[in-house]
Amino acid sequence: MPRNRLLQFNTIPYPLWRRQWPGPLGGFVRRMSERYLAAEADLKPPANAYAMAEFMARYGLLGEERAGAARDAMRQHPATVEIVAQTGLEARPVENYMGKVRLPAQWSPQEAVILTWPVMYPPLWNQHAQMTEAITPVAGVQIIVPNALWATAIQHVLTRRGKAEMSRVRFLQLPTDDIWVRDYGPIMGRGANGEQVAVKAIFDPLPEYPQAQDNAMPLAWAAYEEVPVKHLNLHLEGGNVWSDGAGTLIVSEQVYYANPDLTAETLPDRLRMALDFDKLIVTPRLDREETGHVDLVIKLADARTVLLCGSNVAYNRPNIEAARRLFENTTNAAGERYRVIELPMPKLYLNWGVYPVWRSYTNALTVNGRVLVPVYGVVEDIEALATYRQAMPDYEIIPIDCSASINGGGGVHCLTKEVPGKMGD
User: Which domains does the chain have, with CATH numbers?
Assistant: First the structure.
């Protein structure tokens, strides 16, 4: 199917079968999910290596390898899994950090990147493998899995692909509700003495889906990693926070939708209950885009350079042009004026005739000299990659195929969560 066709029918990487549907619609969605999606991975997960190999073969995750060979390999080489939690909701003691936390810039040294593997969404396995392969040469990767059998399957796939540095991959057993770890994962920063601190905000943006395990994930992870936690009494997802590490904090106006009690006057004070920053910038959000997050509107290439999503799609042009004017007429916390560089935007399409899909190139990850840029198999990819190379010439620009994940509203940035390096590393 041409990827710029207006009406498309692509896998939606959300657990639709868990959603609260009215009346008999719930049963219909469940049946359709079992027939056309990999809902069985959630409803009836594989119980042994044989069942796992059959599942992987059914969804094309083995390539030309036979299921029997994969089963034998997984039996012989089980993955080493660190058990963080059995349910994702287990109570663990955690140190509460009493001071304020400064969020580092994404271009500062990173120790690791967290991924929640899309076990329920086979079309996304290739994307997560690409991200793992791009990150492991320069940082560790922590892969969140529901149990050890899934870790063994993922290890088998990555090993057969032969591109990831497996010595830098850790498997953490920590059940979650979904894959968008950028939003529910720990918002990592530094305390007054440079120590790692995890900021825990309130995660519950989609009331029709279960999210208790996602909301609990940062506490379980921080307790296991022995990282203190700073609680932030704010409904805020990680995809709606950008920092230059030097006092500038950027969010989109989605924060007001998530926290209707807040105003432009009270928001900075609420944020400062946990975060140390000098200047707050609130950008417009994209209309008819479900997340409303800032990482689909802009990306900081450095403290003075803003990459802006394209205004060539008419529907959101006023919002994007407003964001451009905002950054052209303000400065960062150091008083430096911004250079604004616009990226292209592929044409909008409707998934299943209902969900508008915005393919933003700002949803990229910077990690230790590399930039993982989402691409979508369209002609605009060429211009987007060229723009990144021009704006960030000292970085290695690596394209990641996000044509599957974007149907859930996100690319590379939405599916990753960086952990800053320890001081002195």
Answer: 110-420 (3.75.10.10)
Given a cut of 70, is residue 210 above it in pLDDT? yes
Nearby residues of 305 by Cβ (< 8 Å), 6 or more positions away: 338, 339, 341, 391
> β-strand 110-116 against 417-420: which pairing, if any?
antiparallel
Q: Helix axis angle, 125-135 relative to 148-161, nearest 10°?
A: 70
Which pair of structure tokens corresponds to residue 167?
């010595």
Give this prediction's pTM: 0.96
Q: How confident is the model at residue 3 (pLDDT cuts 50, 70, 90)?
A: low
Instruction: Please give the mean pLDDT across all residues of the chain.
Output: 94
To which residue do tokens 């995660």 refer?
A: 203
> What HEC string does the chain produce?
CCCCCCEECCCCCCCHHHCCCCCCHHHHHHHHHHHHCCCHHHHCCCCCHHHHHHHHHHCCCCCCCCHHHHHHHHHHCCCCEEECCCCCCCCCCCCECCCCEECCCCCCCEEEEEEECCCCCHHHHHHHHHHHHHHCCCCEEEEEECCHHHHHHHHHHHHHHCCCCHHHEEEEECCCCCCCHHHHCCEEEECCCCCEEEEEEECCCCCCCCCHHHHHHHHHHHHHHCCCEEEEEEECCHHHCEECCCCEEEEECHHHHHCCCCCCCCHHHHHCCCECCCEEEEECCCCCCCCCCHHHCEEEEECCEEEECCCCCHHHHHHHHHHHHHHHCCECCCCCECEEEECCCCCCEEECCCEEECCCCCCCEEECCEEEEEECCCCHHHHHHHHHHHHCCCCEEEEEECCCHHHHCCCCHHHCEEEECCCCC
102 and 75 Cβ atoms separated by less than 8 Å: no
